[in-house]
Amino acid sequence: MDRQGNAPPDDVPFVLARAAQHGPVVHAANRTARLEGVMPGSRVVDMRAICPDLQVAYADQAGDRAALDRLVLWARRWCPWSVRDGEDGIILDTTGSDHLLGGEAAMLVEMETQLSLLGLTSQLAVAPTWGAAWALARFGPVRAICGADQVAVKLGALPVTGLRLDAATVLLLRRLGLKTIGALIDVPRLSLTRRFAKAALAANPVLRLDQALGSLAEPVSSVDAAPRFVVQSRLPEPIFDPTPYLPALCADLCDLLHQAGQGCRRLHLTVYRTDGDVSHVDVAMSAPSRDPVHLHSLFRDKVAQINPGFGFDLITLAAGDLARMQNIQNDLEGGSDDDLQLAQLLDRLAARFGDRAVARPILRASHIPERAEARLPALATPPAVMPAPASERPIRLLAPPEEIRVLYAVPEGPPAQFQWRRQVHRVARYAGPERIAPEWWKDRPGTRLRDYFKIEDQAGRRLWLYREGLHADGRGGDPRWFVHGMFA
Amino acid sequence: MGLLHIPKVLAGQGDHPALAQPVLSEAFAETAWDAAVLGFVLASLPAGQRPVLWVQDRLSRKETGGPSLAGMRMTRPLIMVSLSRAADLLWAMEEGLRCQALGAVIGEVWGDPAALDFTATKRLALRSEAAAVPCWLIRRAASPNLSAARDRWRIGALPSAPHPHDAQAPGAPRWALELFRSRRSKPGQWVATYDRATDRVDLVAAAGDGPLDAGDGPARQRAAG
Questions:
Q1: Are A357 and A338 in contact (CB under 8 A)?
Q2: Exposed, middle or buried, B30 (CB in 10 Å: 0-12/13-18/19+)?
Q3: Cβ atoms B107, B136 nearer than 8 A
Q4: A-B C-beta contacts closer than 8 Å
């Protein structure tokens, strides 16, 4: 929101809401709102009663988490070891790297400056343990620095909320009269242990206290950035056609993927034009691959989509949607892999004709004939089990059904004679009716039922007719007749 | 009296040479929208669980609809490709015939497009034999022009067999088959009965009156004698 430049002004009470069981609750509130008495975690309707000019927007929690993950990697500029801490924190293991920035105090100032340049406000603290840093950053003084021997002293004045306990345990400790961490430290350890012997970590003040004071180890396990597989070729002068360079690029990229034991399901070809513009082509695959010949063949018809402008002098090829891929040999002679061949065929068809032209029909559980079949895109994985059709169905279905003109109606059964596609058909034999009622949970009200007949005309051709509705069913006029399919 | 051909039952489809080997075959539908041709093509596919590539052009889809999984009762996976140009359709079929993991390749073409000439069918035929994947071209509203297809069929519907329980209802489907050109077997005409329960086609040589000898008398006398 800050990035888009439409953040609300600071003097307007503003909250972010999240969906909860009984309506939205406050996820976060700005300073003005907190001063008005808005508490995070309470219901939005209640807070509107307290503060009538409250402005509400929905929180994007997944987006926040992803942004925080990116910030974790960005924070590696100060130390090599960082990890996301819950929903709103980052832990940096700055052991041995603070002197590079001029000491711990100077490091904290530098961090706050850089974060504020990103448009972020931050609360920072340095402490020997994860738990102590968590408590000091949230409840301690500004840019608190805590040495290894002062942990108990500095934490003593902070409220028990600073021990990363869940709300029920904090309430319990409050009721017991233990309001600060210092009060908790003063309680004899034996009685505390007896009271919380079987509690989980988030509800166990003894373990949390040990973690904060450093007597229980809590190592930081750092996450690694996902590797990027990109190859590029710089050209001595601008060209218009990347085709001669593609085989070498694909081979280089597949080498990289092979070394990492990975395959890719997406390829991004980017050309950087001399006028500063960038042009992309993407291809997708149905199964992870690192076969240079196959990858190159997917671009065969796609390079024409590149707009070369006045020429380009840099081509990059990047792999996306990475997946682990082992070399599987499925017969002793090292012969062809059937699944792989099929996946490559689907890739070639989808790359040439588009993902919508290639489909895998599957059966669905529905009585309405046109809904009994769904089309999966070619690159999707079909389900293992499909429902079996209940009764005989035609081999062909017309979409949509075609209306026929009844020439000679009879009271029961299909019409004795009808006209379809300008030809007169006489019904020689018929089977039916099979009544299919509308699906009330899906259809619009007033949808009419259908009576299906399998008929055979004078020349032996078998059709599937249906009558839509009944006489006097109160859902429109006379019933109409349609051809819906052909039997073999 | 005319000469009545003795019905010759070919026991099962395997004995018929035209249906045993994977080659390119063409099937012409007698009525453009009739599904008898599909029934015969599906019944003559080799058994197995390998997927089928089905390529259809736009007019076939519009005029005769799409293949319905529920009606075909196919347990093997189906890959549908819907295209508008005949050249694309032939390209897709050739790509499919390159892949030995497929059980069959079926293409549906409407009319006589210029792209479907002798060269195109020869390419399909050679690829089909090289990969040992059967390939069927279903032609609707088409004339049997020059083609390299190993077998060429003309298929129409016949009134179905009597239903065992209901005299009113159509029973097992019957088709009129005409093999009018074949490289490996003798052309002929058959009446095929399809048994849905066992997924089996029985071919019976078409019964008909033989040609009349000259001087056999006028029609009224023949009827009397």
A1: no
A2: middle
A3: yes
A4: 160
Inform me whether the C-beta atom of residue A338 falls under 8 Å from chain B C-beta atoms: yes
The overall pTM is greater than 0.80:
no
Whether the CB-CB separation of B111 and B141 falls below 8 Å is answered with: yes
- ipTM surpassing 0.85: no
Looking at residues A117-128, what average pLDDT do you find?
A: 91
Q: H-helix or E-strand containing A207?
A: helix A205-213
Band the pLDDT of B80: cuts 50, 70, 90. very high
| Closest of B181, B172, B171 to residue B201, by C-alpha | B172
Instruction: Return the SS3 of A78.
Output: coil
Question: Quick check: B187 and B152 in contact, CB under 8 A?
Answer: no
- CA B69, CA B58: separation in Å to the nearest integer? 19
Residue A134 backbone phi and psi in degrees, to 5:
-60, -50
Token pair, residue A164, equals 């990363």
Q: By the 8 A CB rule, do B125 and B150 touch?
A: yes
Tokens of residue A418, six digits: 């009808």
Which member of A345, A361, A454 has the closest CB to residue B96?
A: A345
Instruction: Give dist(CA A456, CA B163) in Å, integer.
Output: 12
| Nearest CA-CA partner of B36 in B205, B170, B212, B184 | B170
| Identity of the highest mean pLDDT range in A350-359, A451-460, B212-221 | A451-460
Top-confidence residue, A427 or B201 = A427
Q: Kindly list the residues from chain A whose CB atom is less than 8 angstroms away from the CB atom of residue B33.
A: 421, 486
Q: Which two tokens stand for residue A182?
A: 């210092």
Instruction: Give the distance, in angstroms, between the CA of residue A305 and the centroid of all CA atoms in the same chain.
Output: 29
Contact flag A395-B88 (C-beta cutoff 8 Å): no
User: Does the pLDDT of residue A305 top 60, yes or no?
Assistant: yes
Sign of CA dihedral A419, A420, A424, A429: negative
Q: Give A148's pLDDT tier (boundaries 50, 70, 90).
A: confident
Q: Which two tokens stand for residue A476?
A: 């429109």
Percent share of chain A, pLDDT over 70: 96
Give chain B's mean pLDDT: 83
Cα B175 from Cα B164, distance rounded (Å): 19
